[in-house]
Amino acid sequence: MINSKQKLVIIGNGMAGINTVEQILKLTDKYEITVLGSEPHPNYNRIMLSYVLEGSKTIDDIILNDLQWYADQGITLYTGKMVKSIDGEHKKIHTEDGLEIDYDVALIATGSQSFILPIPGKELPGVIGFRDIADCSAMLEAAKTYKKAAVIGGGLLGLEAAKGLVNLGMDVTVVHLMEDLMERQLDREASAMLKAELERQGIKFAMQMQTAEVYGQDRVQGLRFSDGSELEADLVVMAVGIKPNIQVAKESGMETNRGIVVDDFMRTSMPDVYAVGECVEHRGICYGLVAPLFEQGSVIAKHLAGVDTEGYAGSVVSTKLKISGVDVFSAGEFITQPEHTAIVAKDEWKRTYKKILLRDNKIVGTVLFGDVSESASLQKYVRQQTEMTDEIYGQIMGTGCGNHGAKTSSVETMADDEIVCGCNGVTKKAIVEAINENGLTTVDEIKACTGATRSCGGCKPVVEQILQYVLGDSFKTSAKQGICGCTTLSRDEIVEAIKTKGLTTTREVMNVLGWHNDEGCSKCRPALNYYLGMINPDTYENEGDSRFVNERLHANIQKDGTFTVVPRMYGGVTTPEDLKKIADVSLKYNVKVVKVTGGQRLDLIGVRKEDLPKVWEELDMPSGYAYAKSLRTVKTCVGSQFCRFGTQDSMGMGEVLERKFERLDFPAKFKLAVNGCPRNCAESCTKDIGIVGNDGGWEIFIGGNGGIKARLADSLCKVKTDAELIDIVGAVMQFYRETGQYLERTSEWVERIGLEEVQKAVVNDTANRQALVERVEFALQQVEDPWKKIIHDEDTRKNLFEAVTPSIV
Ligand SMILES: Cc1cc2nc3c(=O)[nH]c(=O)nc-3n(C[C@H](O)[C@H](O)[C@H](O)COP(=O)(O)OP(=O)(O)OC[C@H]3O[C@@H](n4cnc5c(N)ncnc54)[C@H](O)[C@@H]3O)c2cc1C
Ligand SMILES: NC(=O)c1ccc[n+]([C@@H]2O[C@H](COP(=O)([O-])OP(=O)(O)OC[C@H]3O[C@@H](n4cnc5c(N)ncnc54)[C@H](O)[C@@H]3O)[C@@H](O)[C@H]2O)c1
Ligand code: SF4
Ligand code: FES
C-alpha cells in the first residue's frame, strides 16, 4: 500500500515541540511523524525540574509523554540524536552521527541552553547550568558530597535552584548582579519583600556582585568578584539567562538573529520549515515561558492541519515563582512610570503587597506578593487591557484598602472565559464543563481531561477551588484520590476488581474499570502491569511496553544515554573466573567505568545499547536486576566462616536467599542484608529485610531504608532454624507483594499497615504464613532470567537493541 501521509519531522523532543505534536494529532492524522531529540529521555516537564531538585517530585513523576505514548500515536522517536542541519533543497535532515531523514514538513523545536558566563574557570568540574535532567541529577549528586553552593543569578531559575539546594542541606548564596532580585518581573517593593522571605527560608544573598572568575584546582573552590572579594563554593550553578539553540537553523542557512526568525505562522525563511518554542524569535521577541510557546504551537497545528487560523500575534507573559511559601506574581508592566496611575496596597503585618498599573484607566500591569488569589483575573485584565471599574476594584482590592476579607469569592465571580491555566490556555468554562460532563472529582482527573495544571502547576489551587465550587457539599466525600489522574479507584479496589472480574491485561483493566484516559499514563500502566503479574504469576504476559525504560531494556539508562550492566554476585561473593570475564568484557566493549557498588557487586557503566545483548552473552552471568523493582542485592558480612566474632554463616545464608528469591517482582526495589552477629557489619538496619545472627539463631528486621527517606528497620521476630528463617523471609516478601502499593518501599509499607499486622500475618498465624510461602513458591516457579531469553531471541535483539532506526529510545 502506498503511504499517502506527509512526513513531518520534529527536531527537539521538548515541551514546545511535543505540545505542538499533541495539538496536531487532535486535528489531523495526515502526517507520519518522526521526532528527533538530543536528550536520552521521552518528553518531560522541564518546569518541574525545580520540584525534582527540591525533592517533592521524581524524574518518573515529570514524564509528560512516556515511550508508550509515542508508540501508540505511531510516532517514530529517536532519543539521544543531535540534528546537525537541514538540506532544504533535497528535503533531508542530517544528524551529527550520520543519519539522514526525509521530510515534507520540518519543525525546529530545539529550545535553549543555559547561558554560561564567559569567565575564567567556567569549565571547572562543579560549575553547571540548570536546564535538564542531567543538570538536575548532577546537583542532586553534588549535594551528597559538597556543602557550599553559589547560584549566580537572582532570576526565577536561580531562586528556584537555590531553594532546591537549601532543601538538599546545602549552604547556598545567590550572587546577583543587580540591586533587586527578579528585576525583570518585580518592582523594588516586591523584590525587597521577596528577598526578606527567602532569607527567612535560609538562602543567603550577595547583591550587586559581578563574578569575574571561578577559581579552583581540580574542582571549583569559589568565586572571585570584580571588587576582589571571594566566596567559597564547591558547587556553582549559573542561572543568568538562556541562549536559544539556533545552530541547526544557522548551519542550514536560515535567517537567525538572537533566535530563529519566524513570521506570524511560525514559518522560518526556509520553505516548509517551521519553528516553535524558545529557539524562536517572533517580532523581535524570544519567549522563555511555556504559555506563549503553546500558543505558537496552536497556530502551527491549525496551519498544518488546514484549519483556518489567525497568525500568532505575540503574547503577554506572566510569571509565578515556584517556591513553597513564597507567592509572587507579575504580569505586563511592573515598574511605575510617570504616565501610570498606580493602585498600591501594602500590608506589612500580613506581608502582602499588591500593585496594579493603569494607563488611561486601562489595566496594563500588576505585581502581587503574598496573596496571589486574584492572579487569574488580573492576568486576563492585563492581557485584554480592561478598563478599571468600581466593580473590578472591589473584586481585587476589597472594599477598603488592605481589607482582603471583604473580597467576594473569586471563583464564583470569575467569568466563564477567564483563563485559569495560563500555561495551557484552559478557561474556567472548560474546567466546569469537564467536571459536569465527565463526573470528575479530582484535580488529577481534570488534568487528564483538560490539560489544566499539567505544566507549572501554578493554577492548581484555583482548579481545586473550581472543583469545590462545582461539587459543593459532595466535594469532600468525593475527593478520593485514585492511583493516578486516569481513575478514581484506589490500589485495593483495582486489585480486588482484577481478582473478582478475572481481568488479564492492562487494557482490559482500563476499559472495564472506566479509565478517563484510554491510554492510561506513566503512573498507572506500570502499576497495573505489576498488579496483574502479582495476581496471575503463571498466566500473565508481562507487558514490557508498560514498564519504565530501565525495566524494558533490563539495564539502567545513564545521563549520556548509555547503560549499565550489573551481573549477580550472590551474597557479594565472586570468583577469579567471573572477575576475569568481567574484565575481558569491560575491555572489549570499552566500558567507561567499573564501579564497586554499595550492594557488593560490580557495575559496568557506559555500555552502548546495541552492545548490551553481546555483553550479557559473553559474561554468561545472571542479571543482577540493578534496574528492576525486584530483589537487588543481598549484602553479607564475612560471618562465621572467617570472622572471629561470627556466630552464623552470613555469607552462606546470603547466597541461599539470593539464589532463592532472585528475579521476583516487588512493588519497589528490594534489598537484603545478612550479618553473622549483632555487630551488624553489613548494615541490616537499613534494608527491606535485615537478618542478624545471634547465638541461638537469627533475628529478622524489616522496613529499613538508607535512601532519601532513611528509616531504621523494625525487629519482626527471632527464629531458631535456617528453615524457619527462609520461610519467614518468603512470607514477608509475599505479604508485601500482595499488599504493597506500586512504588511503595517496605519502609513506607510497614508504617502504613503497621508492624503488628505484619507480625500477625507472617509470625503468629502459622497457617497464613504457610499459605504465603506456597504462593511465593508458585510465583518463583514462573520467573526466568531476562537476558538468557533475550540473547537467544533474534527479534528482540534486533528490534529493541540493535535496530538503526528504533521506534523508541
Ligand atoms: C528549572 C526550570 C524551571 C522552569 N520553570 C518554568 C515555569 O515555572 N513556567 C514556565 O512557563 N516555564 C518554565 N521554565 C521554562 C520552560 O521549561 C521552557 O520555556 C520550555 O521547556 C521550552 O520548551 P522548548 O520545547 O522550546 O525547549 P526545551 O523544553 O528545552 O526542548 C528542546 C529540546 O530540544 C533538544 N535539542 C536541542 N538541540 C537539538 C538538536 N540539534 N537536535 C535534536 N534535539 C535538540 C533539547 O535537548 C531539548 O530536549 C523552566 C525551565 C527550567 C529549566
Ligand atoms: N517560575 C518560572 O516561571 C520559571 C522558573 C525557572 C525558569 N524559568 C525560565 O527559565 C529561563 C531562565 O531563567 P533565568 O532566571 O536564568 O533567566 P532570567 O533572564 O529571567 O534571569 C537571569 C537573572 O540573572 C541576573 N544576572 C545576569 N547576569 C548576571 C551575572 N553576571 N551575575 C549575577 N546575576 C546575573 C539577571 O539580572 C537576571 O535577574 C527564563 O526564560 C525563565 O523565564 C521560569
Ligand atoms: S557482623 Fe559480626 S560476624 Fe559479621 S563480620 Fe561483623 S563482626 Fe564478623
Ligand atoms: S498555569 Fe501552569 S499549569 Fe496551569
From TrEMBL:
Q: Known CDD domains for this protein?
A: NirB_Fer2_BFD-like_1, NirB_Fer2_BFD-like_2
Q: Which PROSITE patterns match?
A: NIR_SIR
Annotated Nitrite/Sulfite reductase ferredoxin-like domain ranges read: 557-620
What Gene3D superfamilies does its record include?
Answer: 3.30.390.30, BFD-like [2Fe-2S]-binding domain, FAD/NAD(P)-binding domain, Sulfite Reductase Hemoprotein, domain 1, Sulfite Reductase Hemoprotein,Domain 2
Q: Which residues form the FAD/NAD(P)-binding domain?
A: 7-280
Can you name this protein?
Answer: NAD(P)/FAD-dependent oxidoreductase
Provide the Nitrite/sulphite reductase 4Fe-4S domain boundaries. 628-765
